[in-house]
Design goal:
CATH class of the largest domain: Alpha Beta
CATH superfamily of the largest domain: 2-enoyl-CoA Hydratase, Chain A, domain 1
CATH topology of the largest domain: 2-enoyl-CoA Hydratase, Chain A, domain 1
Strand order of the largest sheet: 1-2-3-4-6-9
Number of helices: 12
Number of domains: 2
Distance between the termini: 32 Å
Helix content: 40-55%
Mean pLDDT: 96
Bound molecules: acetoacetyl-coenzyme A
Low-confidence stretches: none
Strand content: 5-15%
Amino acid sequence: MKYKNILVEKKNTSVGLITLNRPKAYNALSSALISEVSDAVKKFEEDNNIGAIVLTGGDKVFAAGADIKELSELDFVTAYTSEYITKNWQALEKHKKPIIAAVSGVALGGGCELALMCDIIICDTSAKFGQPEIKLGTMPGIGGTQRLVRIIGKSKAMQMCLTGDMINAQEAKNYNLVADVFKEGTVLEEAILMAEKISRMSQPIVRLIKESINNAYETTLQAGLESERKYFYTTFNLEDKTEGMNAFIEKRKAKFINK
Ligand code: CAA
C-alpha cells in the first residue's frame, strides 16, 4: 500500500514510527488516512524486529478529529450499513504491540480517541485534548464516552463531552490522561526513547503485561487477579525469565531472546 496521508519509518531498527501527515487539514482523520494507519500498524505487527510503535501528528498538531467534510456527507443508513467506524478503526483497536501516542498541539474528537486507543499517551506543553463533537451536532463515536470515562472519571468526561471544552497538557496529566508532559519540541524524542526501552524487553512478556493491564478494563478485580496470576506463572516457561533473573544475580544486564 502506498501511503498518501501518513509517513512511516523505522527508528533504530526496533521502533516503528507513524506520522499523520495532512498538515493543511490539521491531520483530520479521513477514512483513507485511518486505513493507512491501520495498514502501517499491521505491517509493524508482522515485523519481528519492531518491539513498539510511536504514533505522532508532528510537532504542531496531533489530529483535529474525524474529517468533518467526509462526515458531513454521511447519512445514518450509509454510516450504519457500511460499518463506517468498525471497518476503518478495528485494526487499531486490536493491535498487539505497544503503541505510544506522542501528542503536540490539539488532539480533538477522533484525534483524542485515537490517542486513547494507544497504550501510553505522552505529550508536550502545547497539547490540548477535547471532545468537541457536541458543537457539530453529533457525539464522540470512537471511544470518547467509553475509554475517556474509564481514565479520567465520569464528572470530567461529562464536562468535556457535554461542553466541548478542551483541557490543556497539565490538566491532562492531573487527570491521568497522559503519562508525562515534556518541554515543547521534545515529546517525539522521548516517545522513541521509551519505545526503544520497551523493545529491549522480552517481547512475549511485553505482550502478556499489555494484555493483563487491558483485561483490567474488561473484568472484575478477582477474575483479573486470577488471570494475572496465570500469566505470571506462564512467564516461568520462558528462557527470558531464567536470563532476567540470572542477570540480576550475576550483576549484569539481561540479554533477552524473546523465548
Ligand atoms: N475535519 C476536516 N477539516 C478540518 C478539521 C476536521 N476535523 N479540523 C480542521 N480542519 C481544516 C479546516 O477546515 C481548515 O481547512 P481550510 O483551510 O481548507 O479551510 C484547516 O483545517 C485549518 O482549520 P481552521 O481554519 O479551523 O484552523 P484554526 O487554527 O482556526 O482552528 C481547530 C483549528 C481548533 C483545530 C479547528 O479547525 C477545529 O475546531 N477543528 C474541528 C475540531 C472538531 O470538531 N473535531 C471533531 C470532529 S468529529 C469527530 O471526531 C467524530 C468522532 O468522534 C468520530
